[in-house]
Design goal:
By secondary structure, the chain is α+β, with helices and mostly antiparallel strands. The protein has three domains: 86 residues, Pseudouridine synthase (2-Layer Sandwich), CATH 3.30.2350.10; 126 residues, Pseudouridine synthase; 58 residues, Roll (Archaeosine Trna-guanine Transglycosylase, Chain: A, domain 4), CATH 2.30.130.10. It contains seven helices and 16 strands. The strands form three sheets. Strands 1, 2, 3, 4, 5, 8, 9, 10 and 11 form a nine-stranded mixed β-sheet that branches. A five-stranded mixed β-sheet has the order 12-14-15-16-13, covered by helices on one side. The two termini are 18 Å apart.
């Protein structure tokens, strides 16, 4: 099966746990995900299967949107609710206006320290492996972009928020740093990803839905329509001769897309056969070939 299946990840599972379960359901090894979610987090986890795992390279910098809750009053060693408290809880009284003013400091391009319990590599070793052994985790501040960060409401010591961030941004670190600024400590209590690139919660399916499918045909009905993938690239439908050339990695002439830099090439309505890059003028060369052998046309 070649496709993109969006899972609404439940709390308590790692992204790799979800991938493994879907591999078992599909009886297919070639399954990957397009962006890790922490075990605590829920929401949009797009999975790519079969030949479409090669599309992952185009989603490395995909924008992500989230909703969540920050708990004020104490920090944790993981910067989220799964960690150990870094000190006793404090009573916090803060207004919505005060938090919104503070949140403005975290919008835009900012310097951020990744959490010690993260997948950031230190001399080839993930930081969380060092942190679990109580070893020093010499991480460095990195530049990230928070495109939107809005405090939606405050109830006691909990603040709900909505955020839109560039790839590589840790909202756990945002919560932790807000607590540092306030002098009371804070951590990320819950997080739900509502979007990644073009994928939204409306596209997502529960793992139970996928497991409950009677056959592969029912799972295929859950896949994202290939025409919706990578909307930043224009689409072209190749005739049989052009498709045959692309499948064998040869340059083709696509006069209708003379200004595009990269394009999606389809055979029929649903068969995405390649991503092609413009060489010069109207000549395009397949950057990646997704279907090397012709299959019956799906209309």
């Amino acid at each position: 099966m070649n496709g993109v299946l969006v899972i609404d990840k439940p709390a308590g599972l790692t992204s790799h746990d979800v991938v493994n379960r879907v591999r078992r359901i599909l009886q297919q090894r070639s399954v990957g995900h397009l962006g890790t979610l922490d075990p605590l987090a829920t929401g949009v986890l797009p999975l790519v299967t079969g030949n479409l795992t090669r599309l992952a390279q185009f989603y490395i910098a995909a924008e992500k949107t989230y909703e969540g809750v920050i708990r004020l009053g104490f920090a944790t060693d993981t910067y989220d609710a799964e960690g150990e408290p870094a000190g006793p809880a404090q009573i916090v009284k803060v207004s919505l206006e005060e938090l919104r003013e503070l949140a403005a400091c975290f919008r835009g391009v900012i310097e951020q320290m990744p959490p010690p319990f993260s997948a950031k590599k230190i001399h080839g070793v993930p930081a969380y492996k060092l942190a679990r052994k109580h070893k020093d985790v010499p991480l460095k501040r990195v530049q990230v972009e928070v495109k939107e960060f809005e405090i939606l409401g405050v109830e006691g010591d909990r603040a709900s928020f909505r955020a839109r961030v560039a790839s590589g941004t840790y909202l756990r670190s945002v919560a932790h740093d807000m607590g540092q600024h306030m002098g009371c400590g804070a951590h990320l209590e819950s997080l739900r990803r509502t979007g990644l690139g073009e994928f939204e919660l409306a596209d997502a399916h529960k793992l139970e839905e996928v497991e409950g499918a009677a056959n592969i045909a029912q799972v295929e009905e859950m896949l994202i329509h290939p025409r919706k993938l990578l909307p930043q690239f224009p689409s072209v439908t190749a005739d049989e001769e052009t498709a045959a050339r692309i499948r064998t990695g040869r340059t083709v002439n696509l006069p209708e897309l003379s200004r595009a830099r990269q394009v999606k090439v389809f055979y029929g309505q649903r068969e995405l056969i390649a991503i092609a890059a413009r060489v010069a003028g109207t000549l395009f060369h397949p950057k990646i070939v997704l279907v090397a052998e012709p299959t019956p046309q799906h209309l």
